[in-house]
Design a protein that fits this description.
By secondary structure, the chain is of the alpha+beta class. The protein has two domains: 147 residues, Fructose-1,6-Bisphosphatase, Chain A, domain 1; 97 residues, D-Maltodextrin-Binding Protein, domain 2 (3-Layer(aba) Sandwich), CATH 3.40.190. 32% of the residues lie in helices and 27% in strands. It has eight helices and 14 strands. Strand 1 and strand 2 form a beta hairpin. Helix 2 packs antiparallel against helix 3.
């Protein structure tokens, strides 16, 4: 992909440290709500929404606009921008203020703040912060991927024919996903269920080998962690085409995918 001088200047001016700070501030506010009783609403698609989602979204969007007013924002909790507008964007922020709202409601800690910077259709910066677990993943293209300042991957499986650690969703495990797992060419499969985008991050850090998701997700569910996956030397593959996943599509629904 051709990178113009203007694109490079805009990208160079974005500070990963600043984005981590925004995620941390949002996470601190989320935890204040997490530690008390809170009301739950339901959106049109029957997915849950809490005041923590709304507050985190407000913090993230306002902070990003203040620091980078020329970069548009796409967030799960904002009105969706029409494709005829989005398709002209060179860079944009893709945000999920709380990924894993169901896990937040269950109070199991497995939810994250997701902030990604997309260039055209590729995630080039990502921050995934799990405030209840004190895990801060971050990556910027060309600068490496990190977990709490430790460079990823932390470990590498050299014997995948012997054993694979496979991740599944804590709230959504489809029969297609299970069939795929059952077909893997390895002697032993250790299957772990985990909430939110932590699954992608675990493949990036090496604590898991593969995350198949043969079920619906949205672009903001994966964008931030996908940037971390790619900068850690792994990849997110469209299950049907086996090509890298792309973003800012006309339909913001992700294809089935495999992270490995």
């Amino acid at each position: 992909m051709l990178i113009t001088k203007e694109d490079k200047k805009m990208f160079d001016n974005v500070s990963l440290k600043d984005i981590k700070t925004i995620a941390k501030v949002a996470g601190d506010e989320i935890m204040k709500i997490y530690q008390r009783d809170f009301e739950i609403e339901y959106k049109e698609d029957n997915s849950p929404l809490t005041e923590a989602d709304i507050k985190a979204n407000e913090i993230i969007c306002n902070s990003l606009f203040s620091l980078y007013p020329d970069i548009p924002i796409l967030s799960e909790e904002n009105s969706i921008v029409e494709y005829k507008v989005r398709k002209k964007w060179d860079y944009y922020w893709c945000i999920d203020p709380i990924d894993g709202t169901k896990e937040f409601i269950k109070k199991n800690g497995e939810f994250t703040v997701n902030i990604a910077l997309i260039h055209k259709d590729i995630p080039v910066l990502g921050v995934v912060y799990a405030p209840a677990l004190d895990l801060m993943y971050g990556a910027k293209k060309g600068e490496g991927a990190y977990l709490n300042d430790r460079r990823l991957p932390l470990s590498v499986n050299e014997n995948k024919k012997e054993k694979l650690v496979v991740l599944t969703s804590k709230s959504h495990l489809s029969s297609d996903t299970q069939n795929y797992i059952d077909s893997l060419d390895t002697k032993v499969v250790e299957q772990i269920s985990k909430g939110s985008s932590l699954k992608l991050c675990m493949v990036a850090d090496g604590s898991a080998d593969i995350y198949p998701r043969l079920a619906p997700t949205m672009e903001w569910d994966t964008a931030a962690a996908d940037a971390i996956v790619r900068e850690a030397g792994k990849m997110s593959y469209d299950f049907k085409t086996n090509k890298p996943m792309r973003y800012n599509k006309q339909d913001l629904l992700n294809p089935w995918f495999v992270i490995k």
